[in-house]
Specification:
- Helix 6 runs parallel beside helix 9.
- By secondary structure, the protein is of the alpha/beta class.
- Helices cover 35% and strands 15% of the residues.
- The chain has 2 domains: 328 residues, Alkaline Phosphatase, subunit A (3-Layer(aba) Sandwich); 53 residues.
- The strands form 4 sheets. It has a 7-stranded mixed β-sheet with strand order 2-10-7-1-6-4-5. Strands 12-13-14-15 form a 4-stranded antiparallel β-sheet, with no helix packed on it.
- The chain contains 14 helices and 15 strands.
- The radius of gyration is 26 Å and the shape is globular.
Length: 464
């Protein structure tokens, strides 16, 4: 493998295609479950699909940043829209290796105000169904058409990021066309949009309503499969292909698990990951625990590109056993609307963090000393339908809290407690400073008044 990769790099004949499918659940692929929506992708993914891949975040902005940088949200810092990316994405690293880098994106979390265009040789943003600008950009086809153009123009040494929002927009008007193709039925209803699909399900909780909404989702997956097939049919055989879902989607109104973001359950975090390498590779364990932060280290390891940085993720080619990974959520908007704990006194919303192993999961509230947390036995209850009672909590074999360090709830609580003490100290200092400023306000007002030319003119005239 090493010699083949070096040869490809030497003659400039190595391409990389990274496809991010927004809102793609793990079981949305037939190769991973019973779905019939992905005939083409199932064929492509055969023998190349990981069974235990988890996303670093439950919604697009932080999740995609983790995919592109190899760092968790707390380290790349693109956790909310007014934050900025603090880590260099893989496109910049590959540019220095002589790759032409192009990005095609289809979600507002990739809009120009985020700044990703600064890291690519060529950048194309197509608004999603929620951001209507031009009719020809609404139907989700444009990103795939542009991808084919770029693949035709740049046949060698190309890194292409293709992000599609087709599946994500299953509740919008644009999905009607995909639904009619998938079901072979004409939609008679004049109104098709269902933006409040989650609360619609919670309100009704009828099986037929749930299946109707899921059928819309499956139709979006089906159309994405058709479009992606056109791209995969036009790549060079020496292309490294990565296909990943940034997060899933909730369809369980009885447990209030709807939409995405704010929660850390497996319907959102368990995502498909397909890796297809040119030539032969050494044996890969497709059943081991992996995270979306592993994608960048894996690509660079395959290319034998060394970097000085220490990624949160690790290459799948490393034999080092990983016991635990985690996922993070900090966006208060989603948290407030996802039945997440809110402190009754302060009204503060606590971010969430999930510690995941092959055997179990702990979901805790960040900066809350983990006083409020959920535990699940993933071996017996992977869909997390039932929390473990306190007396059974020790059955979850979570031996680590990070990749290499022992899981110690007491130590974690101490660290969180220290952080809160520092926060309380800073708040006290700010309060004291505010009180001092209030005391000085009359004097400051007098000084400002004396700086006024009118004040001096009146004073001189008065003296004269």
């Amino acid at each position: 493998m090493i010699e083949l990769v070096r040869l490809f790099k030497l003659i400039g004949f190595m391409n990389i295609l990274l496809v991010i499918v927004d809102t793609l659940r793990y079981d949305a692929l037939g190769v991973n479950g019973k779905s019939k929506s992905t005939p083409h992708l199932d064929k492509f993914a055969h023998g190349k699909s990981f069974t235990k891949c988890f996303s670093a975040a439950p919604w697009t902005l932080p999740s995609c940043a983790s995919i592109l940088t190899g760092f968790y949200p707390s380290n790349h810092h693109l956790m909310q829209h007014w934050f900025r990316l603090d880590k260099e994405p893989i496109s910049s690293i590959l540019q220095r290796q002589g790759f032409y880098t192009a990005a095609i994106t289809n979600n507002s979390n990739f809009a120009y105000n985020i700044g990703y265009q600064n890291y690519f040789s060529e950048y194309h943003f197509y608004p999603d169904g929620n951001n209507k600008i031009h009719d020809d950009e609404l139907n989700h086809d444009a990103p795939f058409t542009k991808a084919l153009e770029i693949l035709k123009k740049h046949k060698n040494n190309l890194f292409l990021l293709l992000h599609t929002n087709i599946v994500h927009d299953y509740y919008l008007e644009v999905n009607k066309r995909y639904y009619e193709q998938f079901t072979n039925k004409k939609v008679k209803s004049k109104t098709w949009e269902l933006k409040d699909r989650g609360f619609f399900l919670i309100k009704n909780q009828r099986e037929k309503d749930l299946q109707a909404v899921k059928l819309r989702y499956d139709a979006g997956v089906y159309y994405m499969d058709q479009q992606l097939h056109k791209v995969l049919s036009n790549i060079n055989p020496n292309t490294l292909v990565v296909i990943v879902g940034d997060h899933g989607e909730g369809f369980n109104p009885k447990l209030f698990r709807i939409h995405h973001g704010g929660r850390m359950h497996n319907d959102l975090l368990h995502v498909p990951l397909i890796l297809s390498f040119p030539g032969k590779t050494k044996d890969i364990d497709y059943h081991k625990l992996v995270s979306t932060v592993d994608i960048v280290p894996t690509i660079l390891d395959y290319l034998k590109v060394g970097t000085a940085r220490d990624f949160d993720g690790q290459s799948i080619f490393k034999n080092k056993k990983r016991i635990i990974i985690y996922s993070e959520e900090y966006r208060s908007f989603y948290l407030k609307n996802s039945f997440t704990r809110i402190d009754e006194k302060s009204g503060r919303v606590f971010g969430k963090k999930a510690w995941i192993s092959l055997k179990g999961k702990v979901i805790g509230n960040i900066l809350d000393n983990l006083r409020y947390y959920e535990r699940f036995d993933l071996e017996k209850d992977f869909t997390e339908n039932k929390e473990l009672p306190v007396n059974e909590a020790d059955k979850v074999n979570l031996t680590d809290i990070s990749v290499n360090q022992p899981f110690n709830l007491v130590n974690l609580q101490e660290k969180q407690h220290n952080l809160e003490n520092k926060l309380n100290y800073l708040q006290t200092q700010i309060k004291n400073m505010s009180e001092k400023i209030s005391e000085l306000e009359p004097q400051i007002g007098k000084i400002i008044k004396r700086l006024s030319p009118k004040w001096w003119v009146k004073r001189i005239l008065h003296k004269s």
